[in-house]
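User: Here's a protein and a ligand (zinc ion). What would the complex look like?
Assistant: Let me lay out the input and then the predicted complex.
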Amino acid sequence: MGKPAVPEGPVETAFEKRAARAELLARGPVTTAEPLRFACGLYRVQGRLATTIESLHAERPLSGRLDEDADRFVGHLVDLLRFAAEQGPPAIVADAERRQRERAFQTRSRLLEWWNGDGATAERYLSRALLRPYVEVLAHLRVAPDRLHGPGQCPFCGGGPWIAVRREDADGGDGRSRGTGARRLLGCSLCGAQWPLGRILCPACDEGDPVKLPSFQSERYPAARIEACETCRRYVKSIDLTVDGRAIPEVDDLLSLSMDLWAAGEGFTRIEPGLAGV
Ligand SMILES: [Zn+2]
Ligand SMILES: [Zn+2]
């Protein structure tokens, strides 16, 4: 598996690009303006937090060990918690409100639990959102996070793949996907990196039999596809950049939320929830 590609430029710029895309899409004729507006606000708070964490690193380098580094930034999470409590979807508001009342050591231990894979499911969304700026800063600094990497997870940070991307296969290398001549990559929900999924394969269970890997499309969202696995009943949503090169997959994902609801109705579970929490 190759080195994951990390977005170029300052960390806050990467968050701002996503925010601007979400803002633009929310103004269009969409049924999902609300989650897009929330995503836009979340990216902006995360971008500011990333800048703060970068300045902490400039004072003294981050170690990549969350148990050491968290002490330095937990005090800066208040803005993100306030935003989530005031504007978040119902599923995360209660978690955000409770964390606002907690002391710093409790905030820290809740994040460490999630980091080590033991966090409660209901806390997953917010833990991931709170830690993304930290991990994305580490990615830009090329400081490897000290975290277990399970199979199918991001080779840099162990984050879950929340999106798949299809793009033109420029180098003719591996990653060719079913009949499209496009390259298939997975996008990390924690550090923003992308890494190739080298062949027809379920990222969750390694199923490689094409007959058991159906994909579903909707005429309404030509760039989106549900790539499912009948063996483990999980799926990843892919965004085809050859349909719209301006798409930012994790943001454009929110346009086709109805496809996720359809997949859930068919008994499939998304490998890693997207920004809407499903
Ligand atoms: Zn990652
Ligand atoms: Zn599978």
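Summary: The chain is about 40% helix and 15% strand.
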